Each structure stands twice: as C-alpha cells, then as structure tokens.
Amino acid sequence: MQLTYFGANSWLLELGRQRILVDPWLVGSLVFGNLQWFFKGERRQPIGLGSFPDNIDLILLSQGLEDHAHQPTLKQLDKTIPVVGSANAAQVAEELGYTQVTKLTPGQTFTLANQVEIRALPGAPIGLQKENAYLLKEWESKATLYYEPHGFPPSEIKNYAPVDVVINPVVNLELPVAGAIIKGKASALQLAQSLKPQVMLPTAAGGDVEYEGLVMSLLRTEGSAAELRSQLSKHNLSTQLIEPQPGEPISLPLGSRVA
Q1: Is residue 255 over pLDDT 70?
Q2: Structural domains in the chain, sorted by start
Q3: Antiparallel, parallel or unpaired: β 165-167 and 144-147
Q4: CA distances from 224 to 32, 79, 258 (A)
Q5: Looking at the predicted structure, is the pLDDT value of residue 201 above 70?
Q6: What angle do CA 86, 93, 113 make, to 5 degrees?
Q7: What is the mean pLDDT of the chain?
Q8: CA separation, residue 25 to residues 40, 45, 80, 125, 185 (Å)
Q9: Cα-Cα end-to-end distance for the chain
C-alpha cells in the first residue's frame, strides 16, 4: 500500500494495483460559496495537473463541500474517470459532466476492478444529513484503510476492527457558537483504541497551504500530533503515527495480523 498526501483532504491511495484519488484539491484556490473574504486557501507551491499521474482509476469523494469536491480541480480532470461519492458529492460530479458516477449511501459497497472494496459508512454531519466515511479493503492482501476527514467516526466502525491504516484528523478546529467543525483530538485516540491500526495518518489540517479570511481570525485549534503520540504511548498502543510530507509517497509495509 502506498499513500501520497497533497494537503488539506487530498490523497492518492495506491492499493490493489489501483490508483484512487481522494477529495482532490490540486489547482486554484479553495473558496467556500465564492466568498473569498470569508475563507480562502492557497497552495504555496501549486501542484499543477501537468505533473500529476494521468492513470487514475477512481475519484473518491467523501463530501459535496468545496474542500472535498473541489470544482476547479474536478473540471480539469478527465470526465471519464469513474467517481464514487456521497449523495451531495455525486451530484456535483454529475453536474460537472462526469460520465460514470456512483452514489454510495452508508452501508453500500462498490468494488473497483475486482481488486478493492469500498464501503460507505456514516461520516460528518453537514446540514441535515451525514456525508460519507469510507472503509477500503484490498482483496488480495486483505489490508484495510479507514478514511474520514472531519473526525466523526460512526459507532459501527468498531465492527470492522482491526483496521490496518486510519486517515483521520488529530486536532480539533473550533468556531465560536458552532463548536468543533473538525473533531480529531478525541476521535483519533478513540479510533486507535477501537480499531488497533498499525498506522495512523493525520488529515484535514496539514500540507503546504496558507489560509486567510474572517474564519481564520475566529478558528481555534486544539491538540497536536505530539499530544496524540503521548496518548498512544500512555495507553500502550502500538499504532505508528506518520505525519506525511506533501507530494512524497509513503510505502506502508504492513505486517500480518495474528489470527
């Protein structure tokens, strides 16, 4: 299994000889509702699709919000690449002209090239509904990976333990009145305890990205990778926390589980 992080929520997952692009923001700015004064994200070093791998087998979208279904990026990618997403994300992809779009609701599965099973689970509550978390399973090796970018693990995730790799935020991002919009500080330890992953990787708050706007003046961060490492040690958990460097592939030689 090989993973490459591109900052924010963007990942390239390589498993089962398949290349899965997750929540890609690769070009342009990140803006919510076209309100740059409210929130704007910029990459210090643009990635550029010219140097990006063109043999993507699947685009996997967890949410329909701009930081997951980033329209400037999706407009530039090949519209024949299959897309799997939450109901909101699938709608975005369809409206942009993607020709193979599969909407997954929690409990449903999608099999990619008879190599990787993708199971949708309940994710973060956005508005009146929940978006998606995903559990990916590589058929040949049986290796599993859990991904949810806001730190809202569903109660049923414990039914799939152990999970080899967990991608989850490790900090809380909080706004006055609204409270925590990302809840990684507690959920990361909770997932380490319940899923016993071999490896955990932070998401959502990392990468070579600069943010500005009104939201940034109000946003408060709690927790850190160092704090989580201390908690893992305190609870005698063997999970390895790896902080990825943007654009640098990480190969994960996962050990065999004892039956």
Answers
A1: yes
A2: 2-246 (3.60.15.10)
A3: parallel
A4: 26, 38, 31
A5: yes
A6: 70
A7: 89
A8: 13, 13, 18, 21, 24
A9: 21
